[in-house]
Amino acid sequence: MRHYSESALLTDLYELTMLQAYFSRGMNEPAVFEFFVRQVPGERNFLMAAGLAQVLAYLTGLRFEQEDLAWLRASGKFDPDFIESLRDFHFSGDVDAMPEGTIFFADEPILRVTAPLREAQFIESRVINLLHYQTLVASKAVRSVIAAQGRRLIDFGLRRAHGAEAAVLSARASYIAGFDGSATAVAAPLLDIPVFGTMAHSFVQVHDYETDAFATFVRAYPHNATLLIDTYDTESATRQVVRLAQWLQEDGDIRIQAVRIDSGDLDAVARRVRQILDAGGCRDIGIFASGNLDEYALQALVQSDAPINGFGVGTRMNTSSDAPYLDCAYKLVEYAGQPRRKRSSGKATWPGSKQVFRHYDAQGVMSGDTLTSQHDAVVGEPLLQAVIRGGKVLEPSPPLAEIRAYARLQMAGLPSALRALTAAPPYAVTVSSALHEATRLTDERQRALADADRVHWGG
User: Fold this and answer.
1) Which of 27, 180, 204, 311 is an S-S bond match for 22, by CB 3.0 to 4.6 Å?
2) Under 8 Å CB-to-CB from 149, ≥6 apart: which residues?
3) What's residue 355's pLDDT?
């Protein structure tokens, strides 16, 4: 039996009810939808796109299997002819998107779908689901990367992630953003992400003597052991680590890589641990810290010059605890060759297929973006790139290492003010005169149609 994530029924019911209504009226002209974020969360100065690879896999694998069709029949909600039409349903359209790792801002589409209406509409819910979560996590994780200033960062988020898929995708998104790896083991065989692990407090507790626990673990992992030292008394445990390290020197090829602190005032505790280690001749043993960390805690520890070499960051990163969702949308912008737009208060959209052009200063630093109509001639770097044509992926998704390197280059080009963990003056995104004119014409047409509709109905 397929995993639920592979089912075409992993969608909102209204995608199916709209599909049947379109089918009954024969509506299936080309449509254009765009995914964008309406507003960047208050403490964010930018966002990082992620999740495109999973969207492409979803689109190219989209099919209604027999069990899906059987449920649709049994539900009693759908007509037999409509259900039969879904046997050959697949995505046959085009997709343009910003590469994963791209820095972007509010109202900038990071993905554009051009396809027959029924296909373009139906995929809405899952596309949002995939792009939203990884973009959310990558945009949170990169703030820890900024704060850590080169110190090792490991994703510790599995156990409190919102489900198995979230755990795997957060490992992926945080790695793209610059984390060094994950504690989630399946991330290695599935995504080729480096994985790291130490020990739990229970490992220490099942041994009668803390020293035995440490010695057992080091013997099991003679080249990369990290010992958890705050189960009982942290300073006492550190002294035991020193004695163990001195004893292990006789074996030559066995060494303790680091100690891990998971509680207390990490700054103060790390300083005392460092003193004990150094005094015992263990300057090569590093200190790794974890425990409800986020970018703000990392910034404070780094700015205070706490002697910590790396951090495990989990819950607050992969739940994006201070901003747990993005105000994102997947909206129709064109149908049957006519630009369309939503005019709702606070949720108005720009009409027609669009492109984002990025501009740089002489030093290669981003200096502003232009949001304009797709075919408008604007000097700059076009950010949306062709990824699917006629339902076929043009090129395989790049390896994660390549995406990660691209994200690093994007961060190198980010204006320094936007690296702050608090709100900075907003980055300049200019809406072109061509797009303003397209909006005016679209509104005039929509108002004329509304007036004609009122006459038609006798209003």
Assistant:
1) 27
2) 302
3) 98
Q: Is the pTM value of this prediction over 0.85?
A: yes
Mark 350-368 as b/e (b = at least 16 C-beta within 10 Å): bbbbbbbbbeeeeeeebbe
**CATH number of the 4-137+323-456 domain:** 3.20.140.10
Fold: same for 4-137+323-456 and 147-318: no
Q: Report how far residue 122's alpha carbon sits from residue 13's, in angstroms, rounded to the nearest whole number.
A: 10
Locus of tokens 């706490």: 306
pLDDT at 395: 95
* Sign of the four-CA dihedral 173, 129, 320, 299: positive
Amino acid at 295: E
Token digits of residue 257: 């890589």
The architecture CATH gives domain 147-318: Alpha-Beta Barrel (3.20)
| Other beta carbons less than 10 A from residue 53's beta carbon | 21
* DSSP conformation class of 435: H
- From the list 161, 32, 168, the residue with the least C-alpha distance to 109 is 32
Question: Is the Cβ–Cβ distance between 322 and 337 less than 8 Å?
Answer: no
Domain boundaries, given as residue ranges, for the chain: 4-137+323-456, 147-318
The Cα 94–Cα 182 span in angstroms is 34
Dist CA 410 CA 419 (whole Å): 12
- What is the mean pLDDT of each successive set of 10 residues along the chain, which is 459 residues long? 85 97 98 97 95 98 96 97 97 98 98 98 98 98 98 96 96 98 97 95 96 95 94 97 89 86 97 98 97 97 98 96 96 96 91 97 97 93 98 96 98 97 96 95 88 65
Report pLDDT for 62: 97
> In this predicted structure, what is the pLDDT of residue 254?
82
Query: For 138-200, what is the HEC assignment?
Result: HHHHHHHHHHHCCCEEEECCHHHCCCHHHHHHHHHHHHHHCCCEECCCCHHHHHCCCECCCCC
Report how far residue 205's alpha carbon sits from residue 291's, in angstroms, rounded to the nearest whole number: 19
**Nearest C-alpha neighbor of 445 from the set 362, 370, 352:** 352
Longest distance between any two alpha carbons in the chain, whole Å: 97
Q: What's the CA gap between 167 and 157, in Å, rounded?
A: 7
> Do 97 and 387 touch, CB atoms closer than 8 A?
yes
Q: Hey, which residues does 310 pair with through a beta bridge?
A: 152, 288
